[in-house]
Amino acid sequence: MLILSEYAKRHGIQYRAAWNRFRRGKIPGAYKDEFGKVLIPETIPDRPEKTAIYARVSSSQNKSNLDSQAIRLTHYATAKGWGVDVVIKEVGSGLNDSRPKLLKLLRDPSYTRIVVEHKDRLTRFGFKFLEVLADERKLELIVVNQVEDDKQDLMQDFVSLVTSFCSRLYGLRRSKRNTEKLIQDLSNDS
Q1: Has this prediction a pTM greater than 0.85?
Q2: Is-catalytic flag, 58?
Q3: pLDDT tens figures, 14-32
Q4: Hey, where are the domains in the chain?
């Protein structure tokens, strides 16, 4: 059982809005106990499917890829028979955990499905944690292109990590190009 304040938090609304919903009978199964506390059953009633497309690129230099990524994902969702409710495009590093559009999407309990092209579009590290949390919320994370080559994925993660730390250390965006050159030289030596 949930109390009204927990219900409000889960649905991203103020306590007063939750109270008004309860008063109007808009919360299924909610009732007052003998002490006057509003209790709500934790079972979430079936909610309508709502699909979000999330496309991301690391830098504004790749903005053309951002649009084509969103189009590919929209075509994929349509081919699966899913209605697309929103297409979210964002520019930011996969290591950056302060991407406002993604955070807003993840906080919205009305979405039942998020479609991304690669898992690193959501996050470079910790994807398994997102899967567990999404599963708890009955949110489906659809990754269209599963990487088959672990070496390629590992190298991309390594480049991103080194780039991120170099950028923080030196405060220079050009460090990304220098880091990528360094990684390429190391790869060629192997």
Answers
A1: no
A2: yes
A3: 899 899 989 988 888 899 9
A4: 2-40, 51-143, 150-189
Rounded to whole angstroms, the Cα distance separating 76 from 78 reads 5
Given the residues 58, 93, 164, 175, the one annotated as active site? 58
- Measured CA to CA, the distance from residue 171 to residue 190 in angstroms comes to 30
Beta-sheet strand order (sheet of 84-91): 84-91, 51-57, 113-116, 140-143
Q: Burial-class residue 89 by CB neighbours within 10 Å (0-12, 13-18, 19+).
A: middle
Taking the C-alpha atoms of residue 69 and residue 117, their distance in angstroms, rounded to an integer, is 7
pLDDT band at 58 (very low <50, low <70, confident <90, very high): confident
CATH architecture of the domain covering 51-143: 3-Layer(aba) Sandwich (3.40)
